[in-house]
Write a structure and sequence with these properties.
The chain is mainly alpha-helical. The chain has one domain. The protein is built from 8 helices and no strands. Helix 3 runs antiparallel to helix 7 and helix 5 runs antiparallel to helix 7. The longest helix has 56 residues. The radius of gyration is 31 Å and the shape is rod-shaped. The two termini are 25 Å apart.
C-alpha cells in the first residue's frame, strides 16, 4: 500500500533528481542560490531518509514476529505454571511455611510483571529449597519437571526483553526518520516556490519537475 509518506518521498525524489540532471533548470534556479551542489545535498538527505525508513520497516517486521513468539511462549508458561500451582496447593496445604514460600497464597497476578515475578519466586523456591523439593518428588513431581516449567518462564522473559528492545529501537528510528522527513519537506517546498518562479516562462521545464 502506498502511503502519504511514500507519495511525498517520490515527489521530492522527482523534483530533486530532475533538477540535478537538467542543465537548463540548474542555470535558471542558480540566481536564487540553488547550486547543483546544494541540490545534491538535498538529494543525499532524501536518500538518508529512505535508509531510516527501510530500517524502521525491518524493525517492524522483527517486532511482529517477536510478538507472535511472545504470545506462544506466554501460553506455554501460563499453562505449565497454573498446573504446578494447582497441584502445589494440594501438596502443601498442611505446610504453611512452604505454602507461603512458594507464593501459593492468593490469586495469580494479571499483569505480565506480576505473574512472572510470582513464577520466579515459585520456581526458585521449589528448586533451591531441598525440603520443598523432596516433598515434590515424594508426590510424583520430578526435579526435571520443575526445571522444564522454569525454562518456559526463562524463555518468556528473554523474548519479552528482546521485544521491548525492538520496540524501543523502532521508536528511535521512527523519530529520527520523521524529523529528517519534516525538515526535508520544508526545504524542498521552499525550492519548489523558487523553481516555479524561475521557470515561470518555461512550462516544459515545469512539466519535467511535475510542477
Amino acid at each position: 500500500m502506498v502511503t502519504k509518506f511514500d507519495e511525498k518521498m517520490s515527489e521530492m525524489d522527482k523534483i530533486l533528481n530532475e533538477s540535478i540532471r537538467n542543465e537548463e533548470i540548474l542555470q535558471l534556479v542558480l540566481p536564487f542560490g540553488y547550486t547543483k551542489e546544494r541540490l545534491v545535498i538535498l538529494s543525499s538527505e532524501h536518500n538518508e531518509i529512505y535508509e531510516f525508513d527501510s530500517k524502521q520497516k525491518k524493525e517492524t517486521g522483527i517486532q511482529l514476529e517477536s510478538a507472535k513468539k511472545l504470545a506462544s511462549l506466554s501460553q506455554l508458561f501460563e499453562k505449565s505454571y497454573n498446573n504446578f500451582i494447582s497441584v502445589s496447593k494440594v501438596i502443601f496445604k498442611d505446610k504453611p511455611s512452604a505454602y507461603l514460600a512458594l507464593g501459593l497464597k492468593g490469586d495469580r497476578k494479571k499483569s505480565f510483571s506480576g505473574l512472572t515475578n510470582q513464577g520466579k519466586l515459585y520456581y526458585t523456591t521449589a528448586l533451591t529449597d531441598r525440603e520443598i523439593l523432596n516433598l515434590f518428588i515424594a508426590n510424583g513431581i520430578k526435579e526435571e519437571d520443575l526445571k522444564e516449567g522454569k525454562k518456559y518462564l526463562d524463555d518468556l522473559l528473554e523474548e519479552h526483553n528482546f521485544h521491548d528492545k525492538e520496540m524501543e529501537d523502532k521508536k528511535v528510528l521512527t523519530k529520527a526518520r520523521d524529523e529528517k522527513f519534516d525538515n526535508l519537506v520544508e526545504k524542498v517546498s521552499e525550492y519548489k516556490t523558487f523553481a516555479k518562479f524561475a521557470l515561470r516562462n518555461r512550462q516544459d521545464l515545469l512539466n519535467i519537475l511535475g510542477l
